Amino acid sequence: MAVMAEAQTYSLTSGKYRADIAAVGAGLRVLEYDGAALTETWAAGSKPPLSAGLVLAPWPNRTADGTFAFEGVEHRLEISEPSRNNASHGFVRRVAWMLVQHTDSRVEQSVDVGTHQGWPFSLTVTVVHELSADGLTVTASAKNTGDSAAPYGMGFHTYVRVGDVPLDECTLELSAGTRLPLDPVRNLPVGNSVPTADTEYDFREPRALQGVQLDTPFSASLPDGDGRANHVLRGPDGTATVLWTDSSFGWVQVFTADPANDQAYPDRGRALAIEPMTCPPDALNSEIDLIVLEPGQTWSGTWGMRYEK
């Protein structure tokens, strides 16, 4: 039987990989390879800074003015980002998830999203974190447990790093051919996606990150031969942290935390989030890549991380 554990974390090991998964927000608190950090972390039992590692559902990113229409009915969500008048990141990142199963290398957690202001839909979300010789694999699923269709989107607020190497000494390579322009004040889409080729947003080849500022949704993945899109943060010695996604996560929001913007990552300063997402910001309104689950229907998707030398 599933049990509740508010401040609980679950340790995973496999070979040289180690991870800690928090019960609150099903957050990826630690991922290491042979003692070298592949993610930013935070103290167990404390609030993750800048939503680090947390699951974003039943929508990722922002919903403009907290309002959207679905099947002809208008819904008004609670405004959770008052400074920009947006509803942000869903309902499950600050609640304790239920433990389904925990072994040495795998933990499965689930949460009933519940009904909320402006959200009458019944959904259960499940996330499995599993370590193997290939690194971390995260398998996410959502099931419509209600009696009417439900909109759905999902993201993971994942911060990546290469050991103790400062971000400005790293390069970034993104498997993405387009970006969605955002209004810099409210971080909401303005216009349609545009190609990144030969622009400051072109990371199809590795580029130095010194001084780079990003808070940008990228799409049009360019998968490798294994069908995965691989996004690579690489240090000067050639070691790298790779975040990969399958086709279910067709978007990544790339964000640089930076003291210059009053958004420093504690004890690190500049830090980089690569956030797998199923849809772009404000998808409840644009309906771009929005998932619609019929009663009883289940969606699933997979992404992961690995060390590379």
Radius of gyration: 18 Å
Q: How would the global form be characterised?
A: globular
Q: In percent terms, what proportion of residues is strand?
A: 35-45%
Distance between the termini: 41 Å
- State the total count of DSSP E strands: 28
The average pLDDT is 96
Number of helices: 1
> What structural class is derived from the secondary structure elements?
mainly beta
Reported for the largest beta sheet, the result is:
10 strands, antiparallel
Low-confidence stretches: 1-5
User: How do the helices and strands follow one another from N- to C-terminus?
Assistant: EEEEEEEEEEEEEEEEEEEEEEEEEEHEE
Strand order of the largest sheet: 1-11-12-13-14-28-24-23-18-21
Helix content: under 10%
Description:
By secondary structure, this protein is mainly beta. It has one helix spanning 283-286, and strands spanning 3-4, 9-14, 17-22, 28-33, 36-37, 55-56, 62-64, 67-70, 73-76, 86-88, 98-102, 106-112, 123-132, 135-144, 150-152, 155-156, 159-160, 171-173, 178-179, 194-195, 207-208, 215-219, 229-234, 240-245, 251-257, 271-277, 291-293, 298-308. Strands 1-11-12-13-14-28-24-23-18-21 form a 10-stranded antiparallel sheet, with no helix packed on it.
